Amino acid sequence: MPGDVLWLVIALPAAGSLLCLALPSARAILAATAAGVPAIATASGAVVWQVFAQGPLMTTGRWLHLDALSAYHLAVMMLIFALSSVFARVYFGAEPVPLSRRRARRFGALWYGALAAMALVVLSNNLGIMWVGVEATTLLTAFLICLHVSPVSLEATWKYLIVCSVGVAFAFMGTLLMGSAAAACSLGGTQFLNWTYVHDIAPRLDPKVVKLAFIFLLVGYGTKAGLAPLHSWLPDAHSQAPAPVSALFSGFLLNTALYCIMRFIPIVEMATGNAGWSRGLLVFFGLFSILLAAAFILAQHDLKRLLAYHSVEHLGIIAVGLGLGPLGSFAALFHTLNHSVCKALGFFSAGRVGQIYGTHDMRRITGALKAHALWGAGLFGSILALIGLAPFAIFLSEFLIVKAAAETRAYGTLVIFLAGAGVVFIGALRHAIDMAWGTPAAAPAPRRTSVLEGALVVAPLALLLVLGLWMPRPFQDMLSSAARILGGAAQ
Amino acid sequence: MHGMTDGIMAALLVLNLALLGTSRLAFCITLVAAQGVLTGLLPLVSSSGVTLRTLFLAAAVIALKGVVFPRLLSNAIRGADVRREVEPYVGWGLSLLLGLGLLGISFWLGAKLPLPAAAPEAALVVPGAICTILIGLLVIVSRKKAVTQVAGYLVLENGIAAFGLAVVPDVPLLIELGILLDVFVAVFVMAIMIYRISQEFDHIDADRLSALKG
Amino acid sequence: MRIESAVHFAAALVLAPLLLGIINRTKALAAGRAGQPLLQPYFDIIKLLRKGAVYSRTTTWVFRLGPAAGLAAVTLALAFVPFGGAPALLAFSGDFLLVVYLLAAARFATVVAALDTGSSFEGMGASREVQFSALAEPALLLGIIAVARAAPGAASLSACLGAVDGRAWAASGPALALAAAAWLIVFLAENARIPVDDPATHLELTMIHEVMVLDHGGPDLAYILYGAALKMWVLGALLAAVLVPVRTGAWAVDCAAAAAGMILLAVLVGAIESSMARLRLVRVPQLLIAASALSVLALILLMR
Questions:
Q1: What local confidence, expressed as pLDDT, does residue B96 receive?
Q2: From the list C174, C293, C300, which residue is nearest B7 (CB)?
Q3: Which of B1, B2, B6 would best serve as a mutation to test chain C binding (most C beta carbons within 10 A)?
Q4: Is the per-residue pLDDT at B1 higher than 60?
Q5: Out of A310-324, B40-54, B150-164, which region has the weakest mean confidence (pLDDT)?
Q6: What local confidence, expressed as pLDDT, does residue A1 receive?
Q7: Per-residue confidence (pLDDT) for residue B50, from 0 to 100
Q8: Do B7 and C170 touch (CB under 8 A)?
Q9: Residues of B in contact with C292 (CB under 8 A)
Q10: Other beta carbons within 10 Å of A41
Q11: Confidence (pLDDT) at C36
Q12: Is residue B63 part of a domain?
């Protein structure tokens, strides 16, 4: 059965994880990550293509399932992982103290492990296994934050561990409740936790139990996704982790958790009579995240924390989009890709600029464009794209969300969204201009710039620019079919 | 088997209250281990009864929560030379009173929750599990030592395990094992973190990890 | 009223100080000493009764009335306590409230007498006594209500304790065990035993009960000692009734089982006193709240 190829998407990274433990030197491990992850990503791309060309894939035993929604997320995830893996080699190569073999081994093994765990979350058809995958991502990524052991990184790791473990435990309560609702309608068997099965019987589920379950799921996975007010771990972890890890956290770890919430939306909506109950909750949490992030962005001095609060804001924007009907879902999915690519570039640049200046304090980073033309431009460009400047793609997806709000007559949402986005625009632009121009605080030594580094900056910006100006037809079809699943379609 | 389930749940609740009233970390760890063993016994006396599957699960849970976790945690605090939880955010007497309040709330919630009709022998399991979850949360937020917070997390896990047993009696074995593996790795990672924090800071007070703000 | 009830009442009046003797003997044996004679508490009381009392000029009639009033209240409470399944001398619906309040009245008498001396030490002891018993009272009362629920249809102490048999234990064992555990803590606290108070200490700063009676002498002190022994019997009989659910209907068997239960309880208290240290004063309220928590838990287990 062709569907069984899905196991490979999880097995290959797991094998890579073991390989990293066996490799002899730090250089070899970093090379293996930088080459291996893009290779796995390319192979997964073929699987994703298969889904959009010929329909969903399912393994025997119905454990793994790849439909349009999960395929789209898998594609975004693989893209971010591939970019970050290549960047990791550049970043650790430029560190003043090279990575020891032990640290490199830990990095490689956990990096591949995180890839396997996230692939498990996205691919899993079983809601219980999906939860297991999310918890596994928390645990595998914890030691990536404190790769460089220091008091603050330990503090960030501890908060991340406790807050996310406890939060995700609530998601498990929600999964159990959903399972109990499904078990009440099923004739026995062990299928009742399978998404495909629950989806089929969704209209018959007890709406009260489903609502209760969704509240737990939203709080639980929302903690991991960094939705305010459950985001307390997020700025600490993002700012203390090494830049490639921050890029991964912001680029896809948060989306993994949000993806889990997305999986439940159609079920909850069908069970509660399509009254928009779950969507209302999402809009509320999303708007709250946007406003809170805007306030913190205004008063921020740390570059990586600034980017971290941008993640809170953008995850909020995606949540708002999910709450605004079919067009909103389409825009939210589009925004997922835009934000992930843009934020990965943002953290890449922040990491390299931070290495050049020896600090992440934005008051001491001036004249980045002069100090290092490439990464300075990357930083400036990524912040411009992040705040939604036209013609970058984020402008387009935010515009679509505004349009969706207007179409569904959610004018209150519209106003709050625009106000939040406006504050973020002004606040972040001020920081960006101060960092980009001016005289560099310390005259930095001239550095060689490899072609690879150039590609890491140019490729994301080019992608954002192209998608902002022209959306290819196949990509649009991809988004539409994924959005249809959010609207309740079977595939 | 009705009386057995009741007895185990009552013992779980007493252990919860004892955890709220104790300050010695070693005793905390013992209490949580005892609670883990009781949670492990729960599937054996539940509606599905003693089968190969429940026996296997019970053995795994008891081995992990009763033996492995206490070992990991005691090893983690050995280097730190900390024996007591000092000056928690919420004092011992108040903690106990809050625990009683939570107990009442859990029984009220247990009656209110729109759960699918549970088997009569599980009538005490749902409120007991909710109470265990709430008290786990209370311990996590009201105590300062990192190891006590892990104890709270384990209590929370025990509560969720009992809850799961009551609302979804036959979760596929693979998922149960996945969950156990996750909890095991979680405690393992947390124990390593406690060890590292004690090495780096000379204390394991989570409230003094407060350099990162804003 | 049955003849057994009267016999039980008389026996309790006679045998109560013996419990103290057994506790002291157990402690002595555990410490490797021969210890005082079993009947030493009787000798003490008789000796004190033969002495005259000395009254300070600063005290009033309140001070003189205290010991006698306390003894009277406890004796009345004893009349409501059943033994070995047989009903008590007096019983009516809801009498357990009266019993708890009679014990409180006895305490009140002791406390006002202590306050009447105007001594700062006695005031301190009084304050502690009141604080701790305020915390112990809910544990006792809630425990009684829990036991009454476990034996449905019973609203007097005699009826509900009489209904605690093997079947009640089978139906609601955890709740009864929790109530008994709560009562054991109350028993230790109310009778001023370790780990709450140390009856052997003479360091005023740490004493609770003993410090209140420092100014009493002669017959007054005898009344207080005897009243304390009766109070121990009252609370002990409650515990024994729950922990020894032998209700065969044959008077001699039930009675012997209950008596054995009382003796075991005294030995247990002696063992606890030999193996534990006194808690710091700040920890005592916590212990008593824990006892209340156990009672509440017992009640909740029975409520659903």
A1: 86
A2: C174
A3: B6
A4: no
A5: B40-54
A6: 47
A7: 77
A8: no
A9: 100
A10: 21
A11: 86
A12: yes
A290 and A184 belong to one structural domain: no
SS3 for A65? Answer: strand
Both tokens of residue A486? 């959010």
What residues of chain B have any CB closer than 8 angstroms to a CB in chain A?
A: 113-116, 133, 137, 140, 146, 149, 153, 156-157, 160, 163-164, 167-168, 170-172, 174-175, 178-179, 181-182, 185-186, 189-190, 193, 196-197, 200-201, 206, 209-212, 214
Is B186 in contact with A139 (Cβ distance < 8 A)? yes
Q: Which domain holds residue B50?
A: 2-200
CB burial of residue A332 (10 Å; 0-12, 13-18, 19+): buried
pLDDT score, position A398: 93
A176 with A259, same domain: the answer is yes
Say if B211 falls within a structural domain.
no
Q: Are residues A416 and A289 in the same domain?
A: yes
Residue C173 has pLDDT above 70, yes or no: yes
Cross-chain Cβ contact C285/B93 below 8 Å? yes
A132 to B181: CB separation less than 8 angstroms, yes or no: yes
d(CA A98, CA A394): 36
Q: What angle do CA A43, A44, A45 make, to 5 degrees?
A: 90
Kindly report, residue by residue over B89-124, the tens digit of the pLDDT. 888 888 888 988 898 898 888 887 777 655 566 678
CB-based contact (8 Å) between C303 and chain B? yes
In one letter, which amino acid is C262?
M
Predicted confidence (pLDDT) per residue in C260-291, tens digit: 999 999 999 999 888 888 888 778 888 888 88
**Residue of B170, B193, B202, B213 to mutate, testing the A interface (most A Cβ within 10 Å of its Cβ):** B193
ipTM of the predicted structure? 0.91
Q: Determine the Cα–Cα distance for residues A158 and A237; give it in Å rounded to an integer.
A: 9
Residue spans of chain A under pLDDT 70: 1, 187-189, 441-447, 490-491
Measured in angstroms, the CA of C262 and the nearest CA of chain B are apart by: 26
Chain C residues with beta carbon closer than 8 angstroms to that of B24: none
| Length in residues, chain C | 304
Sign of CA dihedral C174, C175, C176, C178: positive
Nearest Cβ partner of A161 from B137, B174, B190?
Answer: B190
User: Does position C205 have pLDDT exceeding 90, yes or no?
Assistant: no
Q: How many CB atoms lie within 10 A of CB C219?
A: 17
3-class state of residue A126 by DSSP: strand
Tally the domains of chain B.
1
Q: Domain limits at A288?
A: 276-491
- Give tens-digit pLDDT for C58-92: 888 998 998 999 999 999 999 999 887 788 888 88
pLDDT of residue A369: 86
pLDDT attached to residue C137? 92
pLDDT at position C94 over 80: yes
Min Cα distance C295 → chain B (Å) is 10
**Type of residue at C210:** E
Across A5-9, A217-221, B65-69, C196-200, least confident range: C196-200
- Say whether A155 and B212 touch across the interface (CB within 8 A): yes
C170 touches chain B (CB under 8 A): yes
Task: Answer yes or no: are the C-beta atoms of C295 and C144 closer than 8 Å.
Answer: no
Indicate whether B210 belongs to any domain: no
Q: Which helix (H) or strand (E) is C242 found in, with range? A: helix C218-243
Select the residue of B153, B171, B201 nearest A165 (Cβ to Cβ): B153
- Say if residue A68 is in the same domain as residue A100: yes
The number of domains in chain A is 3
CB contact (8 A) between residue C293 and residue B100? yes
CB A286 within 8 A of CB A248: no
Same domain, A196 and A331: no
- State whether B212 and A135 contact (CB < 8 Å): no
Residues A211 and A289 in one domain: no
d(C-alpha A396, C-alpha A346), whole Å? 19
Q: What is the mean pLDDT of chain C?
A: 87
The answer to whether B7 contacts chain C (CB < 8 Å) is yes
Within-domain flag for A138? no
Whether residue A52 lies inside any domain: the answer is: yes
| Chain B residues 75-104 with a CB less than 8 Å from chain C | 92-93, 96-97, 99-100, 103-104
Q: Is the pTM of this model over 0.95?
A: no
